[in-house]
Amino acid sequence: ALGGLLSVGFLSEVGTTQQDSLVSLFPLISLLIILSSINSIKANQRTAIVAIIFAGILAGLGCGLKLVIAVYALALCLSFFVLPVSWFNRFKFSVIFSIAVLFGLLVSGGYWMYNIWSQFGNPIFPQFNHIFHGELANPEPILDIRFLPRSLFEKIFYPVIFTANPSRVNELGYKQISWLVLYIAVIFFLANRLVHSFRHTSVYRTLVPEAKFLIAFLCFGYLLWLNIFGIYRYLVPLELLIPLILFVVITTLFESNWARVSAILLIGSITIINLRGVLDYGHSAWTDQVYRADARELKKPGPAAVILAGQPLAWIIPALDIRVPFIQVAPNFPVSEAYWLLARTMLYSRSGKIYIVRELDNPSIVKRTDSGLDNIGLAVDSNTCKVMNAYLGTTKFQYSYCELKKGKSENENFGS
């Protein structure tokens, strides 16, 4: 447990808004409930059904809070098929668990998804818009493929690759060796199980159902992550289990007191080595006010709208604390013409000045901003630009804010 809490991904995210460490609780508690109920599941008792439903609801609650957890809910669902029960019961338990997951998802995320669907025509906008066809985004899959393996060879050896080159799975790079050690241990373990299964030796049967389920959850969860995301911080639920799984694998392979001592020493050594790779995403000192921004012109009198250009800038909205429309003109997903039509309607149905907030001295943002502003018939009035100090806690960021004027393409955009 201590080794898990001192893992690189978990420690790096403490005190951040990414929440992977927090939502990991849901699939892990679900896993704990299932492991604790293995005996009743084997006996097909009614208490097993209750435990599976409760475990599924918990996993679903996690999915509703952060959709990434759906990967681990599916991994739990698939892991039922390794249990020593009939195939009918495996399927039955899996279906019951899946229905409970759906219920939990609707409890924690249903209201929010309904609102998103009402606003944008897609309950998880802009994801899967090729299925839901929300009019504000293009009907095409939106995938972040930057961190996915690029070949079959990389898929097979990805733990080796991202251990040697951490930037393959994260912009900042999580330096750790735990996944490499686990990869070698599990490959050796599975090969050993396979050999003994063909030989029908008694050693193979020493693997208890709890260990089977745990290792199956690891394998299914990792394979789903490998093919869908490839982003390291989404591995936190599995990363927290690495010390436990290493202990199970080593003590199962080598049944002796020395194996237990060796496993503990190995886990401790890995934990100490990994601590040097913990990232600091930019923690701020404690303050009474989380967000604030110094930009008087944007507050008195209130503008007609504020344009945002660049990512991530949504936190500027609570920092400014003004009730006006905020519109992103450099979105990070492909938007449709309906998006720009809605933006023009919002802007030109209100009176007053329109401002833009964007990063300082970022040529790529300037280029994307000009293209976006052209779509709504506006241009930056460079004579009005000023520097805005914005604060997350006590950490200061500087942005440029300027008034907007009618652009060259105004007649083309608004003539009709």
Key terms for this structure?
7-stranded mixed β-sheet, elongated, 20 helices, alpha/beta
In short:
By secondary structure, this protein is an alpha/beta fold.
What does this structure look like?
It contains 20 helices and seven strands. The protein is elongated and about 80 Å long. The model is unreliable at 409-416 (pLDDT under 50). Strands 1, 2, 3, 4, 5, 6 and 7 form a seven-stranded mixed beta sheet that branches. The N and C termini lie far apart (65 Å). It is of the alpha/beta class and 416 residues long. Helix 4 runs antiparallel to helix 6 and helix 7 (70-79) runs antiparallel to helix 8 (87-120). It has helices at residues 2-5, 8-13, 20-23, 25-36, 38-42, 46-65, 70-79, 87-120, 129-132, 152-156, 158-164, 178-199, 209-228, 236-239, 242-253, 257-274, 316-320, 337-348, 363-375, 410-414, and strands at 291-294, 305-309, 326-328, 354-359, 378-380, 386-392, 395-406.
Helix residue percentage: 40-55%
> What is the 3D shape?
elongated
Unreliable stretches (pLDDT < 50, length at least 5) are: 409-416
Number of strands: 7
Count of DSSP helices?
Answer: 20
Strand content: 5-15%
How far apart the termini lie comes to: 65 Å
Report the radius of gyration as a whole number of Å. 26 Å
The sequence of SSEs as H and E is: HHHHHHHHHHHHHHHHEEHEHEHEEEH
Largest sheet features:
7 strands, mixed
Which structural category fits the helices and strands?
A: alpha/beta
Task: Give the overall average pLDDT.
Answer: 90
